[in-house]
From TrEMBL:
Belongs to the aldo/keto reductase family. CDD domains: AKR_AKR5G1-3. GO terms for molecular function: oxidoreductase activity, acting on the CH-OH group of donors, NAD or NADP as acceptor. It comes from the Bacteria. Keywords: NADP, Oxidoreductase. This is Aldo/keto reductase. Substrate binds at H114. The lineage of its organism: Bacteria, Pseudomonadati, Bacteroidota, Flavobacteriia, Flavobacteriales. PROSITE patterns: ALDOKETO_REDUCTASE_1, ALDOKETO_REDUCTASE_2, ALDOKETO_REDUCTASE_3. InterPro entries: AKR, AKR5G, Aldo/ket_reductase_CS, NAD(P)_OxRdtase_dom_sf, NADP_OxRdtase_dom. The record marks K81 as: Lowers pKa of active site Tyr. The active site is at Y56 (proton donor).
Length: 278
C-alpha cells in the first residue's frame, strides 16, 4: 500500500511530479459564487488539488477561487481536460490556451484527454506531448481510457500518460484495468467515487460506517486511497468538503478492502467509454 499520511500527501507520477492523492472535483459546480466558494473553502481547509475541465464551464470561477484563497497558485495542483470537440493537434493547443486564460494561470499541473476518440486522440496526444516538452504543463494524462484504448494510444506515444482518470467505486472496480495501469506506471484516479450518491443506499456501507465510526463517504474515499487510487469527490457544500477530507485517523482492514472489492459488478453510473455519443 502506498503511504497515506494527510490531506497534503502525494503519490509520485512516473515523471517524478508529486500529485496530491486527494482533491476537489468541481463537475456540476456552477460558475460564479458556487464554484468560487467551493474552491476557496477546499484550499483554505488544506486541499491542494483542484480538478476541472473545459466542458464544466466553470474554469473562470475555479481560477478566481484559487486567487481569492489563502494559498499561492504554485502550491495548488490544478487539473483541466480537453473536450472531445477540441481534440486534434492544432485545436488541442488552442483549447489549452483558452483554458489557461479562463483559469488565469500560465501553466497547468495536469492536462487530460477527457474521452477516448481513437486516432483523433493520437493527434491530441502529440499536442499534449508538445505542451509538456515546452513546460506549459507539468504532467499529461487521459480520462476514461479502457485497456484497449490505452494499448492503442501507447503504440504511437513518446511519453506514456502519467494518469488515467476513471469512474471508480465499489460497483466498478475494474481490477484488471487498475493492474494494467499500475504495470505501465500510469497513476489511476477515481471520478464519481460515491456512485453519484448511490453508495449511501448500500447496507454494507452502513455496516462499515458503523464499524469504523466514520461516514459512508469517508469509508469509500479511504478505500480509494488504500487501493492506491487518487480521488476527487465533488461537493460545493463547505461542511461536506471538510468532512470528505477527514480520512487520516483510521485505516480499513485488508479484509474490509477485499469486502469492498467483492462488490464489483461492472456497473457504471456515468457513460461507457466504449459507447458514448458526444
Amino acid at each position: 500500500m502506498k503511504k497515506i499520511t494527510d490531506l497534503r500527501g502525494t503519490f509520485e507520477l512516473h515523471n517524478g511530479v508529486q500529485m496530491p492523492y486527494f482533491g476537489l472535483g468541481v463537475y456540476l459546480s456552477k460558475d460564479g459564487s458556487e464554484v468560487i466558494h467551493a474552491v476557496k473553502d477546499a484550499l483554505d481547509h488544506g486541499y491542494r488539488h483542484i480538478d476541472t475541465a473545459a466542458i464544466y464551464n466553470n474554469e473562470e470561477g475555479v481560477g478566481t477561487g484559487i486567487k481569492e484563497s489563502s494559498v499561492d497558485r504554485k502550491d495548488v495542483f490544478l487539473v483541466s481536460k480537453v473536450w472531445n470537440t477540441d481534440q486534434g493537434y492544432d485545436s488541442t493547443l488552442k483549447a489549452f490556451e483558452a483554458s489557461l486564460e479562463r483559469l488565469g494561470t500560465d501553466y497547468l499541473d495536469l492536462y487530460l484527454i477527457h474521452w477516448p476518440k481513437g486516432d483523433l486522440s493520437k493527434e491530441t496526444w502529440k499536442a499534449m506531448e508538445r505542451l509538456y516538452k515546452e513546460k506549459r504543463v507539468r504532467s499529461i494524462g487521459v480520462s476514461n481510457f479502457l485497456q484497449h484504448h490505452l494499448e492503442d494510444l501507447l503504440t504511437s506515444v513518446e511519453i506514456v500518460p502519467m494518469v488515467n482518470q476513471m469512474e471508480f467505486h465499489p460497483y466498478l472496480v475494474q481490477q484488471k484495468l487498475l493492474d494494467f495501469c499500475n504495470a505501465n506506471r500510469i497513476q489511476y484516479e477515481a471520478w464519481s467515487p460515491l456512485m453519484q450518491g448511490n453508495i449511501f443506499d448500500l447496507d454494507i456501507m452502513k455496516d462499515l460506517a458503523a464499524k469504523y465510526n466514520k461516514t459512508i463517504a469517508q469509508i469509500v474515499l479511504r478505500w480509494d486511497l488504500q487501493k492506491g487510487v487518487i480521488t476527487i469527490p465533488k461537493s460545493s457544500k463547505k461542511e461536506r468538503i471538510i468532512a470528505n477530507a477527514d480520512l487520516f485517523d483510521f485505516e480499513i482492514s485488508d479484509e474490509d478492502v477485499k469486502l469492498l472489492d467483492s462488490l464489483d459488478r461492472g456497473k457504471r453510473f456515468g457513460p461507457d467509454p466504449d459507447n458514448f455519443n458526444f
